[in-house]
Amino acid sequence: xxxxxxxxxxxxxxxxxxxxxxxxxxxxxxxxxxxxxxxxxxxxxxxxxxxxxxxxxxxxxxxxxxxxxxxxxxxxxxxxxxxxxxxxxxxxxxxxxxxxxxxxxxxxxxxxxxxxxxxxxxxxxxxxxxxxxxxxxxxxxxxxxxxxxxxxxxxxxxxxxxxxxxxxxxxxxxxxxxxxxxxxxxxxxxxxxxxxxxxxxxxxxxxxxxxxxxxxxxxxxxxxxxxxxxxxxxxxxxxxxxxxxxxxxxxxxxxxxxxxxxxxxxxxxxxxxxxxxxxxxxxxxxxxxxxxxxxxxxxxxxxx
Length: 304
Hints:
Layout: H1 5-30, E1 39-44, H2 46-53, H3 58-68, E2 74-79, H4 85-90, H5 92-95, E3 103-107, H6 110-114, H7 124-127, H8 137-140, H9 143-156, E4 160-164, H10 176-195, E5 199-200, H11 202-213, H12 230-243, H13 248-303
Parallel strand pairs: 1-2, 1-3, 3-4, 4-5
């Protein structure tokens, strides 16, 4: 079959368009920094512990969202309830670096502020203020030094950090604790910029959502003012996925993958509630039976 100049021209245009489309596809997929086979350590406190412990926690949503976009990453859960920056630094090698992750998300700051006198001061100047902290404050170091050490040690070990700003301490955004938390988050933002690290500015996202909802006295993104409800977990996951480089279309794929997880979690919660109700009923029935037998035994002598 002979090709006319016109057909050759059209074929060259089609080939160029196909190659261009393939190039666009390659660039789009390359935007996701995490690759299949990568390990992601999630270092944090009870928010992160719940992010893994709950079937719809933010850690699980991040992993599911990546998988929905063809990236099969391995999670390394490293959240412990109540932990502050000094404790995370102390267990960094054991809980994170020894697992050889390629990535490490760091969620830290709420407890450093929320624990008050037992908290971790932002810097040396804050630590020196009379009456602000207990007598063991020097053992805990400062937030700036602890976080910087965590980031530098992780980077040196080949685990690229992703910094998460601390969310909120109660949803009354104008309270004293959120005011105290603000400079901690400012430091995280400046550190991410200085070290050229991905940043998930969750505090900004949470503040925007709470202000948008404008429902004082209600819980919009948390279950108790600090720990995540379903919406809070989704916001955290979206922030982390964006920091990993997912674009709008990829985020939609990620969100779509969460529906089965939510349905499964709802069904599991329903079964747990039914099991608790059945156990409570069995306990009540047993008590009623025992009470009836006791009353019968007490009444027997009087009947003679």
